[in-house]
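Run log // design_07
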């Protein structure tokens, strides 16, 4: 039986603070809508817009006054957000349930940063840079063709086998930066234990030109190791068909498989040379790990220089969060706005709407980051939470979402705060005749936030000639909160800044709520039960008989219908 022998001091209950009491009594818009507020205050947009690294962030279309922002900053002060932030950057063990430091920010500290960061007797900067140097050396060998498959052919496809943070981050970044892949190497990803994933991903690949990265810190993750074994069997079968002798299997696996793991004994047992295993540390949570060795596939496909630029973007946002004054601190302000929307306005979901097709996996990435971090019902001292925590993050790229779910955001009965993300310069500057299509695209971005904020009155509808019962159907209430985030272009640095921005937003919310945003015990029970049920699914009647009636019935249906 495990026990926390070093329990954390009780977090501040936010509901007991003076700021919380005042926020409960506070009408954020002072009884006015966004239309009236903007008309009365011509400086509102300027006063509620900020720069963080290369990002321009407009918070003015949120349902707050400047007084609301002041009260939220008071709440952050009373709940110790900045002190907890500083403790995180210093390497204190703020992950209390696992007694660990939380140091994903150390992954992107620049080479030679001073003062050097030492935590728990380890030179963190040195450790991180040693792994990065090894990754970059490996990436350069693959990109140049010096590293080949067992038959001497250049690697053309790298397959990343992982799940959760070992998959969502690399997939999202690969899709976001795809045009920068400059070495003739494609990336593919396998995560789901559904055999369809392995089958579809490998069916048109050439084993002779395929390199596989198995990403699992412990090398015991069921889905990842099962899929790695399936890919190994596929690869060896294909190589045998190409004339590679079975006696060369060990060499083939060593040439076609590398690992992101610290379990070197298990890596070697699988057949991977431990020299080709890239590790990371227990102070890196999976959902915070894309800038660690988990990003090895990105360094291979895009190159070390682009990966360093990516890390630089993270660090720029880290420094903004660490040093900017509270009233100018964008992650702090956005995290506090989320608190306002969830705890005082009753929002249950949060949409993230990138007006960039390259960011089509960004909302999925944020789902793990935010909901695995803040989907908690106990505080970091083990006591129950006193307020609603977390919100459901979701979204799709614009303009696709406009033709799907924007109806609910505009005219539904639920309040759905939304973040809109766009870039001034497109990757592909295409024209339809004389029409700049990117300008047409961004016109939608600007129009949607305007429509959500200011709506359309019955008088405006009637002025267009609509009468009678059709008028209410065409009225838009407005006052739907949005945040607009813009940058010049989607570069590796800007992508790193965006990811770090949401990491720190998530941190701020968790700090106010008094929860540990860096464990994920909620994912464990289902995995444990799956292991127990495997024998029942395979035909063990004794184990099947132990199950509840519903589970037993479902397993029996499966067994009766499996061909």
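design_07 sequence
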């Amino acid at each position: 039986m495990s026990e926390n022998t070093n329990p954390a001091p009780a977090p501040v209950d936010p509901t007991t603070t003076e700021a919380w009491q005042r926020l409960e009594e506070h009408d954020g818009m002072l009884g006015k809508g966004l239309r009236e507020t903007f008309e009365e205050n011509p400086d509102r947009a300027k006063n509620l817009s900020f720069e963080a690294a290369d990002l321009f962030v407009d918070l003015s279309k949120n349902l707050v006054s400047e007084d609301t922002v002041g009260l939220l900053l008071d709440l952050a002060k009373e709940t110790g957000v900045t002190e907890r932030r500083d403790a995180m950057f210093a390497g204190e063990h703020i992950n209390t349930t696992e007694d660990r430091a939380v140091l994903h920010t150390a992954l992107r500290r620049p080479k030679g940063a001073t003062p050097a960061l030492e935590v728990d007797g380890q030179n963190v900067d040195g450790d991180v840079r040693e792994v990065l140097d090894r990754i970059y050396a490996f990436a350069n060998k693959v990109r140049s063709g010096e590293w080949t498959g067992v038959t001497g052919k250049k690697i053309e496809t790298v397959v990343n086998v992982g799940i959760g943070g070992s998959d969502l981050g690399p997939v999202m970044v690969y899709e976001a930066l795809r045009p920068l892949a400059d070495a003739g190497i494609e990336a593919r990803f396998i995560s789901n234990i559904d055999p369809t994933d392995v089958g579809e991903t490998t069916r048109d690949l050439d084993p002779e030109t395929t390199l596989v990265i198995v990403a699992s810190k412990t090398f015991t993750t069921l889905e990842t190791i099962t899929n790695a074994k399936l890919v190994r069997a596929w690869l060896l079968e294909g190589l045998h068909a190409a004339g590679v002798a079975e006696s060369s299997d060990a060499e083939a696996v060593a040439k076609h498989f590398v690992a992101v793991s610290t379990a070197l004994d298990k890596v070697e047992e699988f057949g991977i040379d431990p020299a080709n295993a890239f590790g990371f540390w227990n102070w890196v949570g999976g959902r915070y790990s894309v800038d660690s060795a988990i990003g090895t596939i990105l360094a291979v496909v895009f190159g070390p220089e682009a990966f360093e630029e990516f890390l630089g973007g993270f660090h720029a946002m880290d420094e903004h969060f660490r040093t900017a004054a509270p009233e100018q601190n964008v992650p702090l302000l956005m995290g506090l706005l989320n608190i306002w929307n969830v705890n005082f306005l009753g929002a249950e979901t949060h949409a993230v709407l990138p007006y960039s097709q390259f960011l089509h996996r960004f909302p999925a990435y944020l789902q793990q980051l935010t909901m695995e971090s803040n989907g908690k019902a106990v505080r970091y001292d083990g006591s129950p939470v006193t307020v609603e925590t977390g919100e459901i993050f979701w979204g799709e790229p614009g303009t696709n979402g406009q033709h799907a779910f924007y109806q609910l955001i505009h005219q539904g009965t639920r309040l759905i705060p939304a973040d809109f993300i766009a870039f001034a310069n497109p990757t592909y500057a295409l024209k339809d005749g004389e029409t700049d299509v990117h300008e047409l695209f961004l016109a939608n971005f600007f129009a949607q936030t305007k429509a959500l904020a200011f709506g359309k009155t019955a008088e405006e509808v009637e002025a267009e000639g609509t009468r009678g019962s059709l008028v209410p159907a065409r009225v838009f209430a407005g006052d739907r909160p949005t945040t607009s985030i813009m940058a010049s272009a989607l570069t590796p640095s800007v992508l790193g800044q965006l990811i770090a921005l949401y990491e720190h937003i998530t941190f701020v919310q968790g700090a106010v709520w008094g929860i540990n945003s860096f464990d994920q015990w909620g994912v464990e029970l289902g995995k444990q039960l799956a292991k127990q049920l495997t024998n029942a699914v395979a035909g063990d009647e004794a184990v099947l008989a132990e199950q509840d009636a519903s589970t037993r019935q479902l397993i029996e249906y499966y067994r009766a219908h499996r061909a």
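The longest helix spans residues 492-513.
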